[in-house]
Amino acid sequence: MVRLYVATALRCFGVLSILYPLVLAGPVQKAGLRVPDSAFQHRDDVKNIFIESYQAYRKFAFGHDDLEPVSKSFSDGRNGWGASIVDGMPTMQIMGLDDFFNEAVQFVGKIDFSESQTPDTVSLFETTIRYLGGLVSSYELSGKQHQILIDKAKQLTDKMAFAWETPNQTIPWRFVDFDTNSPNLGTSNIAEAGTLDLEWNRLSLHTGNDTYRRLAEGSVRTIAGLTDPLPGLAAQGIDPATNAFVGNYITWGGGSDSYFEYLIKYARLTNTDDNLFADEWHTAVDSSIKHLQSRSTVQNHLYLADRDDNGDIVHVSSHLACFHGGNWIFGGKLLNNDTIVNIGLELVEACWNTYASTATGIGPEAFEWLAQDSFQPGDTRPNRQQTAFYLQHGFFITASDYILRPEVLESNFYAWRATGDTKYLDRAASAVESFKKFLQVQSSGGYSGINDVNNVTVSRIDDTESFWFAEVLKYLYLTFDDPDHISLDKYVFNTEAQPFEAPPAKPVYGSGHPYPAQGSYVMKPSGAPLPKISPIPGVSISFGTNDNSNSN
Ligand SMILES: *[C@@H]1O[C@H](CO)[C@@H](O)[C@H](O)[C@H]1NC(C)=O
Ligand SMILES: *[C@@H]1O[C@H](CO)[C@@H](O)[C@H](O)[C@H]1NC(C)=O
Ligand SMILES: *[C@@H]1O[C@H](CO)[C@@H](O)[C@H](O)[C@H]1NC(C)=O
Ligand SMILES: *[C@@H]1O[C@H](CO)[C@@H](O)[C@H](O)[C@H]1NC(C)=O
């Protein structure tokens, strides 16, 4: 951490100089970090798992979205464009699997993103983070030589842009029917509306068309401009028709998670001089420290609780929410704030404990705890079995499945790169062993989810989501790799673990303090042009009524 005291040369009558503390952004990674030689064996293990499971995908499911490793078949839950290929491409590039990567580039050239290959409408969020994120990241990681990746990204995103139905709409609808270019109307949530701006901003950078950035960023600006139930902690539901929150539910888990995640990542990726993004994130973190922090009565683990529509705290958390430790470490470093980094590290501990405590060594989908700050109306009363488990481990399982999610190992990766404590390498190695033992399907070589992480005679979930290739194996691989490879000081990961090249960090992110009260950021009136911010080099930006090229 670098805290510089800048001597401002205020020399009054030649007598004194005053020292002002100036809080500078710290590097995210620990300086001089190296992995021990033993790590490379684990790295190769992870690479082999990728090869085995991707070969199984190629054999039984190539061109489809997911492998079904038990039935040796496939499913198409992401519009049938080959999600595992596109989402997996940056991992292939990072692991040096050039044959797979080149095959994937060929494949992408043949995808027709102008229509869904299934009867389904297209999810703006899922399609952005997996397909658009995968294409843009692959383009950057492979030295910007495959223009086809950007051409296809543009074809896809021009269709997704119909999620903004009217010129004055700032928050997009969740789904678009690619046959009719019309959105499905209905309530959205802040995760789906607020997890587009990294990807759409990069597409603007690589195409010179600023409309993508303007649309995606406008959605985040609108959400950040609303009056929150707690300062910085936006409610989960949002109505694109009215720009109003739906309910008051607050969580760092699904439906809200990556809205918070992207606030600080957008500040870092764009280096915008507009403090909105970093300050809004800091405000959310500050409120979480004040209102959502909760410790278990057993083992004193630190968790972040939810807050329900009535304003009651609910002591629930999830695998999805466990990205928060890594995100607080990352943002805390950028804000040069040890308090935030250290809470992030404690959250990493509690999330890892959900792995360390089960029979398989893998963590569950959802869990709860009994809080030192008292039992609340929304809390689950644990049954006998859950109580026994709780007394041993400081949490109890409320949804026991594991569907190949990354978040616990993602935060473990941030903790390793930020601290250099080798216990994080040991944890990643232990997860690899558990995966080999309990997830691999011998008959196909693929990897499946399981229904009960606390039962070693597990029953399988016959699916390999694309985030197995995109996230789990990439975070594990990079944990064991040379820390200079995809350094957290040079790349910003999207919520699907797709790294985007970041410029050198700014000296300072945000104003240095959370907003004093809610509503201090005034929302732009509907229809008003957005302020000219974070200009992208080489992009001429024009604002005005005729720039609403998304409406037909
Ligand atoms: C820029 O992107 C928008 C949104 O997809 C699209 O409607 C417009 O045609 C694009 N402009 C150019 C010049 O390609
Ligand atoms: C937005 O535009 C639509 C039609 O283009 C119009 O019906 C609606 O009233 C406008 N909403 C606002 C808030 O201006
Ligand atoms: C770090 O952030 C926390 C949470 O907002 C705040 O309470 C604390 O004062 C900050 N520390 C510094 C040194 O700015
Ligand atoms: C573990 O799962 C198997 C098969 O699903 C089941 O028969 C068994 O009762 C479970 N064991 C425990 C301890 O829950």
TrEMBL record:
<dbReference type="GO" id="GO:0004571">
    <property type="term" value="F:mannosyl-oligosaccharide 1,2-alpha-mannosidase activity"/>
</dbReference>
<feature type="binding site">
    <location>
        <position position="495"/>
    </location>
    <ligand>
        <name>Ca(2+)</name>
    </ligand>
</feature>
<dbReference type="InterPro" id="IPR012341">
    <property type="entry name" value="6hp_glycosidase-like_sf"/>
</dbReference>
<dbReference type="GO" id="GO:0036503">
    <property type="term" value="P:ERAD pathway"/>
</dbReference>
<dbReference type="GO" id="GO:0016020">
    <property type="term" value="C:membrane"/>
</dbReference>
<dbReference type="Pfam" id="PF01532">
    <property type="entry name" value="Glyco_hydro_47"/>
</dbReference>
<keyword id="KW-0732">Signal</keyword>
<dbReference type="GO" id="GO:0005509">
    <property type="term" value="F:calcium ion binding"/>
</dbReference>
<keyword id="KW-0479">Metal-binding</keyword>
<comment type="similarity">
    <text>Belongs to the glycosyl hydrolase 47 family.</text>
</comment>
<dbReference type="GO" id="GO:0005975">
    <property type="term" value="P:carbohydrate metabolic process"/>
</dbReference>
<comment type="pathway">
    <text>Protein modification; protein glycosylation.</text>
</comment>
<keyword id="KW-0378">Hydrolase</keyword>
<dbReference type="InterPro" id="IPR036026">
    <property type="entry name" value="Seven-hairpin_glycosidases"/>
</dbReference>
<keyword id="KW-0326">Glycosidase</keyword>
<dbReference type="GO" id="GO:0005783">
    <property type="term" value="C:endoplasmic reticulum"/>
</dbReference>
<protein>
    <recommendedName>
        <fullName>alpha-1,2-Mannosidase</fullName>
        <ecNumber>3.2.1.-</ecNumber>
    </recommendedName>
</protein>
<dbReference type="InterPro" id="IPR001382">
    <property type="entry name" value="Glyco_hydro_47"/>
</dbReference>
<feature type="active site" description="Proton donor">
    <location>
        <position position="126"/>
    </location>
</feature>
<dbReference type="InterPro" id="IPR050749">
    <property type="entry name" value="Glycosyl_Hydrolase_47"/>
</dbReference>
<keyword id="KW-0325">Glycoprotein</keyword>
<keyword id="KW-1015">Disulfide bond</keyword>
<feature type="signal peptide">
    <location>
        <begin position="1"/>
        <end position="25"/>
    </location>
</feature>
<feature type="disulfide bond">
    <location>
        <begin position="322"/>
        <end position="351"/>
    </location>
</feature>
<feature type="active site" description="Proton donor">
    <location>
        <position position="365"/>
    </location>
</feature>
<feature type="active site">
    <location>
        <position position="407"/>
    </location>
</feature>
<feature type="active site">
    <location>
        <position position="257"/>
    </location>
</feature>
<keyword id="KW-0106">Calcium</keyword>
